[in-house]
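Sequence, please.
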C-alpha cells in the first residue's frame, strides 16, 4: 500500500484487461496512485478468457506481465466488483470518494447483433459466447451449444478460425462456411491463427469462389494472389487432412434474415449479394439488391462487440462517445468522454482500448491505446492540485460497503500459488480453477 501521507494524484481505472492493466502501469510509472477495479475475480480480460486454451506460452507470458503490473506499489487491485450505473459502485460515487480522474477500460462487453429477423432461432449463437465458454469464463461455462453439420460463421477473422479449431477438437464433422461482406483481400485473419486448421481448407471450393468474385476485386485494384499466398503459407506444414471439418468461404455477402424450420431452428440465411467500391483508400461493400438463400443449421455471428449501454456513459453506434474537440488529444485521438445532455460532468472521465473503439486490434494495440489514453489523463491531472494525501484505503472506505467478497492482490497471490502447485503436481503447463466458488474458496482460505 502507498504511504498514507504521500502527496499526489489518485485515479480509478475500470477494467483489468490488457487496456486497463497497461493504463494502470503507465499512470503508476508517472507516480500516480491507481485503484484498478475489475468485474471478474481474475485480471486479464480477453487475454485471460479470449485466447485459445492451448496457447500456453502466450498465456503465461501475459500472466507474468500482468502480475508485475499488479505488484507495483502504486497499483491497488479491487476484483469481483462491478462499476457502472447498475453495478456495485457508480461513477459518481468514485468521484465523491476522492478519485480525481476515471479511466474506463471495460472493453466491449456486449454482443453485437445486427437486428435481423430470426436471430432468436435455435442454433444461432455469438462467437464471443462460445470463446468464453471453452475458456471457462464463470458466467458462460454452463451454457450449452448444439452445432449442426452446416455451420455458417458471419465474419472472416481470427475468432472465426478459433471457432473452427474448437469444433475440430470437439470432433464435430461438417462444413463451416465463413461469410464476408467484402472480398478475399479484406479477410481479417492471420497465418498463425490459420495454421492449426489449415488442413481443413477446401481449396477446390475456395478457388471456385474466389474465381467468381475476382472480377469485382480486380476492378477496384485488389490482387487476390495475396489471399492465396496467405493460405499457402499456412498450409506449408500440413501433410494431410485428418479432420471431419471442412472450411469454405463466401464473399460479397451481407446477411438480411434468418429462416427457421417448423421446430424453431435455423434452416437458412438470406444474403444480399454485394458489389465493392473504393471510398478513399477503403474498400466498401454496397448491396446490389440481389438476394440468395443458403441452407444452414447453425449460425455463429463473429462480427465484434459493443460497449455496455447500461454502464452510465453516453453511447453511439456501439461505442462510448468522445468529444471531437478534446482538451488533451494524443496523436490526434480524443480519449475524453462527451455528451452535454447525458453527462453534465464528464471532464474527468476518459476511455481507452475497446471501450473507445470496440473490436479494434488485440493485446498489442490495446496496450498502445491504453498508454495514449493514460497520457491524456496525465495531461488532465497536471491541471489539478495534487491531493494532500493519496491514502488509497481512506478513499476506499468512503465507497459503499459491499455484501460480497472483494478480491485484493493478496487473494490473487494465494490463487496463483495454489494453481501453480496443482499444475506442477499434474505435470501440466497450466492449471486454472474455473468456477467462482472454487476461486473464492482458495482466496478466502
Amino acid at each position: 500500500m502507498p504511504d498514507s501521507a504521500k502527496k499526489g494524484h489518485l485515479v480509478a481505472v475500470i477494467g483489468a484487461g490488457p487496456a486497463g492493466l497497461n493504463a494502470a502501469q503507465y499512470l503508476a510509472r508517472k507516480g500516480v496512485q491507481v485503484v484498478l477495479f475489475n468485474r471478474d475475480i481474475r485480471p486479464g480480460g480477453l487475454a485471460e478468457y479470449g485466447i485459445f486454451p492451448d496457447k500456453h506460452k502466450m498465456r503465461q507470458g501475459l500472466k507474468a506481465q500482468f502480475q508485475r503490473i499488479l505488484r507495483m506499489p502504486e497499483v491497488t487491485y479491487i476484483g469481483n466488483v462491478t462499476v457502472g450505473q447498475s453495478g456495485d459502485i457508480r461513477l459518481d460515487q468514485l468521484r465523491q470518494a476522492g478519485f480525481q480522474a476515471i479511466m474506463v477500460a471495460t472493453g466491449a462487453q456486449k454482443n453485437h447483433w445486427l437486428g435481423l429477423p430470426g436471430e432468436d432461432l435455435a442454433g444461432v449463437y455469438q462467437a464471443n459466447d462460445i470463446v468464453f465458454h471453452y475458456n471457462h469464463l464463470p458466467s458462460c461455462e454452463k451454457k450449452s451449444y448444439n452445432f449442426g453439420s452446416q455451420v455458417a460463421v458471419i465474419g472472416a477473422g481470427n475468432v472465426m478460425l478459433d471457432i473452427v479449431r474448437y469444433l475440430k477438437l470437439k470432433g464435430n464433422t461438417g462444413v463451416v462456411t465463413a461469410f464476408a461482406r467484402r472480398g478475399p483481400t479484406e479477410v481479417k485473419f492471420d497465418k498463425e491463427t490459420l495454421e492449426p486448421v489449415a488442413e481443413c481448407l477446401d481449396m477446390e471450393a475456395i478457388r471456385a469462389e474466389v474465381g467468381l468474385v475476382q472480377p469485382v476485386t480486380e476492378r477496384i485494384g485488389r490482387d487476390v494472389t495475396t489471399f492465396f499466398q496467405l493460405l499457402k503459407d499456412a498450409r506449408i506444414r500440413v501433410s494431410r487432412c485428418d479432420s471431419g471439418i471442412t472450411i469454405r468461404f463466401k464473399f460479397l455477402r451481407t446477411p438480411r434474415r434468418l429462416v427457421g424450420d417448423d421446430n424453431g431452428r435455423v434452416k437458412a440465411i438470406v444474403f444480399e449479394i454485394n458489389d465493392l467500391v473504393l471510398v478513399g483508400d477503403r474498400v466498401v461493400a454496397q448491396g446490389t439488391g440481389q438476394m440468395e438463400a443458403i441452407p444452414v443449421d447453425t449460425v455463429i455471428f463473429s462480427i465484434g462487440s459493443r460497449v455496455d449501454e447500461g454502464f452510465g456513459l453516453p453511447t453511439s453506434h456501439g461505442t462510448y462517445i468522445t468529444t471531437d474537440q478534446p482538451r488533451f488529444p494524443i496523436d490526434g485521438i480524443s480519449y475524453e468522454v462527451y455528451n452535454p445532455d447525458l453527462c453534465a460532468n464528464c471532464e474527468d472521465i476518459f476511455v481507452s482500448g475497446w471501450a473507445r473503439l470496440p473490436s479494434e486490434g488485440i493485446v498489442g494495440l490495446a496496450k498502445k491505446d491504453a498508454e495514449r489514453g493514460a497520457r491524456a489523463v496525465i495531461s488532465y491531472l497536471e491541471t489539478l492540485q495534487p491531493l494532500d494525501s493519496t491514502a488509497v484505503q481512506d478513499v476506499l472506505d468512503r465507497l459503499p460497503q459491499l455484501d460480497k467478497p472483494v478480491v485484493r492482490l493478496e487473494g490473487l497471490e494465494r490463487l496463483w500459488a495454489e494453481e501453480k502447485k496443482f499444475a506442477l503436481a499434474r505435470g501440466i503447463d497450466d492449471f486454472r480453477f474455473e468456477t467462482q466458488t472454487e476461486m473464492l474458496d482458495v482466496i478466502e482460505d
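The domain at 114-303 is CATH 3.50.50.60 (FAD/NAD(P)-binding domain).
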